[in-house]
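quick one before i forget lol
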Amino acid sequence: MERLRKLWRGRTMTFGVPLLLYLVGGSFGLREFAQIRYDVQKLHGKVDPALKEKLKQNTVTLESEYEKLEKSDLDNWENIRGPRLWEDSRTVQKQRREAAHLKTE
């Protein structure tokens, strides 16, 4: 009886066993919540057949995007500063248009 009390008051029983219970119980709980998540995805993940056909028709390949980039002129570009948070974007655009107009004249 004395050994049982000593064992019960030891560090293993006060810290180790509850930790193991939390770990094992948490893994079972997470498994259940993950299963619910995957079940909901199965129910709501069904795609409308018309949308599926539209997605099949819209095939964008890496090669087609590369060809678009090759056609664009990447050597002649101009760095344009956007308006700051405290600036009004319309006035900044108006000033830029006027400056560009003066530059072309």
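fyi Residues 64 and 70 are 10 Å apart (CA to CA).
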